[in-house]
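Quick one, T. Sequence first:
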Amino acid sequence: MRNSHYVRTITGNFTTGGIGYGYDLSSAWRLTAQYGSSFRAPTFNQLYAASFGNADLPSEKADNIEASARYQSQGFQAKLTVFDNHIRNFIQTFRAGCPNGLSTCAANAGKVEIQGATVESRFSINEYWQLSGNLTIQSPRVDATDRLLARRAQRYGNLILQYSNGPWDWSTELTASSNRDDYDRAIRLNLSGYALLNSTLGYRLNPQWRLQARANNILNKDYVLAASSSTVDYNTMGTNIFVSLNYDMK
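Structure tokens:
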């Protein structure tokens, strides 16, 4: 249980908390259920950014329920989680109905419900190789209109293949998302689904120092995460490579 006192134009006390219970059916199977409440204060930009912010924007409040079943044995584990999230005063970007003649603004979409399920699994092929992945199927909708939430996919997930041997480690990852909706005033925009291939190679020089290289969007896919209108998309990065030298204090 937690009580937060939030001070700004709209001052308030927010009491949040959670409760959960888990039960072991056997050494391999475990069932869990939990409930939690939360609040999210608007960001500085959502409150005060010029030609966008709204200083009177209320905070989001949410109630979250989920249940899961997990199986675990030597070298293999799998988990299924179902969830139902109810959010009040959900904050998102609007391009219509903004106060003071603004073309875009942060505003409350009202009540939102996000229902869905996530399945995840991890499998050790041998002492060097490991395969893991997850998939989420959900329905994120605004209660009043039954519209999908902007920029929220109904299906997304990833698949990761990892290799580790001595100081070397390597992984490759396939990340995918189904199509999403965005909105330009009353116009519904469709953002196509995409799949990205990424890879990481690392070498531990000693217990403290690690050298790493990462390549993102290896296939140079052209994809969109957000659109400003029916003809203008926000750019995303093509193929890019990062090299880093990391120090671990031990």
